[in-house]
């Protein structure tokens, strides 16, 4: 009955009760209680043993198990379940792409060589009574994603959903403190941090979300309010990258460029801002993510794209160093503007660049296809170990204007 | 170290004519005489003998959390594995092990399975515990909510209203998937 009823602890306690085996053992009633339970089945096992059983069930069966009873539902959501699962079936990194125009989501698993997209209808027929979901597509189109283990948090302007990739269940969660749009988000130590974005009045804070308690709180104030910024995290630092300065259009181009090519660094544990950093060559950050102790940045200069790596390993000695890396195999003259957009996702030792919007005709001709209007589908993978790029299966057609995130399952 | 009993008896008659036995007493008072290598698969027994130098061969180790029925099941498994190990010390004959394990659990009810999981956990036989919890998982696999509740005697503690909502939203989960 108790929350932390753990049989193994009890066993060790019992073991210590054998001081002298030559004496007759007087079994007391408390000792008997383990074997003589009122219900007589698998569900009467103590939490840790039931968890051992449940964590061995294949993922396909997990969805229905959370409806069996409250206790099973609680156990399936517990950190111990995730821990056991990780231990028993090494969790793999996958890319989750959520379409904002159709109710579809897709998953790309990287564990095997011939990876392919698996599509799931992203079904909004869930108990979403809030008005915030009245226009579900509008909610999705402005949402940012952050993943903690197998659970993906979909943060919209005034609503939030938690999507469980194991059970495919959507649950409404507490919305953000401010109605942010185009903000930065990242996960540090199993908590979500958000900053920047447009809101009225402008949100000048960094807010923290604790999934255990489903609560938001303000943790700091930002040095710059960035609109359209990108979030990433490495070793406890929340990076708020790129974007534009909000507000008066009179500030002029110089300052706008300063925002677009720089990033602010918030040390979550120390609750302090580190010195801001800027791309050595200037330019405008169009996509960014964290992988293997580095922040990777795709920058746009008037006529070309460049790919950079920022050393974010704080004890590595090289912290703060920028290196220009081999750029993605895109045609030289690709212009990333309002018509072509990329999303960058770090998946363990890979950086995945997903073209989520736009049309690259040059690239199309190079890859030998003749039809024009090649749309929002290119997926390129940068391998941080070898420094090479490869091409992964294109985003499925039903996934449009995608928002992407890496998750473990 | 288990110097006193383990080594004194085995060193005096290194290739012993008569196998050494360890006595284990279950919750209902039955005493099992178990061959040493088999008993040593029970981590709780192994560490008990390793920790207590003054125990003798006549020592009867009480196992108050293990019923006689569960003990029969546990020993059947451990003896079979000891036999596999003895025959093929390098690598277990996988086919045979699988065949044995399949037949072994087929005969067990959920209730017996639960008793054995508790016993294997208490006796700390990680290999058997892995195996048994895997069997329980197999029995849960591909079952509907209703089936799991009935089959495992789980009390549905959702309110009728919550239950109705769940059924409406997640109809697929409540329909029989695999009646087995």
UniProtKB/TrEMBL annotation, chain A:
Keywords, comma-separated and alphabetical: Kelch repeat, Repeat
Top-rank taxon, per record: Eukaryota
Record domain F-box: where: 39-88
Pfam short name (any one): F-box
InterPro entries with a match to the protein in the record: F-box-like_dom_sf, F-box_dom, Kelch-typ_b-propeller, Kelch_1
Record's keyword annotation contains rRNA-binding: no
Protein name: F-box domain-containing protein
Organism annotation: Xanthoceras sorbifolium
Lineage of producing organism: Eukaryota, Viridiplantae, Streptophyta, Embryophyta, Tracheophyta
Automatic annotation (TrEMBL), chain B:
SKP1 component dimerisation domain sequence ranges: 127-173
Compositional bias of kind Low complexity: 1-15
A Pfam entry, by short name: Skp1_POZ
Spans annotated as Disordered: 1-26
Pathway entry: Protein modification; protein ubiquitination
Record's keyword terms, sorted: Ubl conjugation pathway
Domain of life of the organism encoding this protein: Eukaryota
Residue ranges annotated for the SKP1 component POZ domain, each copy included: 20-82
Protein family: Belongs to the SKP1 family.
Name of the protein this chain belongs to: SKP1-like protein
UniProt lineage: Eukaryota, Viridiplantae, Streptophyta, Embryophyta, Tracheophyta
